[in-house]
Fold these 3 entries.
Entry 1:
Amino acid sequence: MSDIKMRGGGCLCGAVRYSVPSQPIVVAVCHCRDCQKQTGSAFSLVAAFPRSVVSIEGDCASLETTAASGSPVTRSFCCKCGSPLFSETKSGNEAGLVFVKAGTLDETLDLAPTAHVWTASKQAWVQIPDGIYSADRE
């Protein structure tokens, strides 16, 4: 039995549930145009976890697109309610990571962004706090 403390999450309708380690590797704000379109907001907040310890129950659909970097991105969402749940990137796959849409976690009060990426396309009104890692690209 594993000693890793886990936390749960899921979609809006409850058809998809998942568990991940309680502590993400990184919590990042992505300002790319694709994330803006997928979320209908200024950015997407994601938490990275090792794929090997992520457990998913329920059916997800996925859409693969080509990111501004030219690499493929696969975004998974609930088949019933459409809630965005997971993103997979080439670099994340190479590192064995999956990116979970942080707002779908059951408990989020302890999560704070540690990085902002694709800031070249961030909305002008979004302010990035001093001391937080920031990159124009992924």
Entry 2:
Amino acid sequence: MTADVLKLKTAKTNTAVSIEFSPRIISLIEQTQTGDLAFIVSKKGTPLTKESFGNWFRDACRAAGVQKSAHGLRKFSATLAADAGATSHQLMAQFGWVTVKQAEIYTKGADRAHLGKVSSRLVEEQIKLKIAPHLNSGTGDSGKKSTIIET
């Protein structure tokens, strides 16, 4: 792991994943006990298995009044990414999925109204970059005036 990127291979699919941590997450990690060769350890300092971690996380959630699990948090994270416009292939890279089918569960359910607006802005940006600069250059000028509507 470099200062802010965790690189690992998933246990289930043996797929390489790179996860960038925010400064806030780095700060939390620095305040947390870790092992020499294990990132997540028990109170005794021994590495947690994925099953032990899942059980510990679920119990911690329940103690905090949250009815979620580590898997639920993973699903929530995928939903947030898809709602923000992450593509199927970006989700595959982040979560270690090897088929588009798994990622599409989240992208199909993404906030379509928001994503439609984001896509419209992408089109607008491309018009400004690729078409608008040529409107006044005389290139392809047929004597007709072109109008770009800005929103």
Entry 3:
Amino acid sequence: MVATSLTLSACGGTDNSADDGGGSGGDTESSFNLDDVAEDADAAGLVPEDIKSKGTLKVGSDTTYPPNEFIDDDGKTIVGMDIDLIKAIGKKLGLEMAPETAAFETIIPSIGPKFDLAISSFTINDERKQVVDFVSYYEAGTMWAVKEGDSIDPDDACGKKVSVQTGTVQEEDITAKSEECTAGGKEPIDVQKFDSQGDATTAVVTGKTDAMLADLPVTLDAIAKSDGALEEAGEMYDSAPYGIALPKGSTELADAVLAALNSLMEDGTYDDILEKWGAEAGAIDTPEINPGS
């Protein structure tokens, strides 16, 4: 069960190339500027000496999930809400955060051996908490999208073609919904799986599928960039926290990251970052270490 759940996330997939559905994104009117983020002495004082001596920390991220983490239009720069957030946390701690692209399913097993920590829209669940520790920073649920003018009930999509990114919690969700259809004597959902969210979105725009589902900020970003081709279907459901993943048992580092995040919330930087990426709807008030434990 642990191995299976580690591949299921708010984010997933293995195609780490630049995504046609991406682009630079963001709100240029946002007041966020990384250079304006100042070190927080109290938070920095919590950083373990072995981490502090490194100076630069390697951060794992699956860069196929705009607007949270993706490759910018230059084809090489990693950007997104999560990326801005982890870099701002680094500034608060007097550290440099260096995001690196990795296939999603390899990230958590690589925390420790390869990465110092990771941020990649990880949905926090009990199975993952057996392997790594988390600091929560956002709340997101699932949202569906359809072609403009179409109408699909996410609770009754039997017989419809629905696209989803492989390795996400949405893949598990749509599979369960299809099984409910057949159990009720209806046609199953024709689930079309794609390695990248961009391909799953394009399938709806081009009419290959009737709908798609993804995390709320990802679906809203896809709709915003579709030039009116897509619209929401139904309402968000199954809301759950995202977490920054840290080596299991790294209590001091978790405390430092938590303190840095609280500092970003107190000075307004956290809200500025979410505003930049149009992700205010998932803001939280109180970050936690391993929420629900």
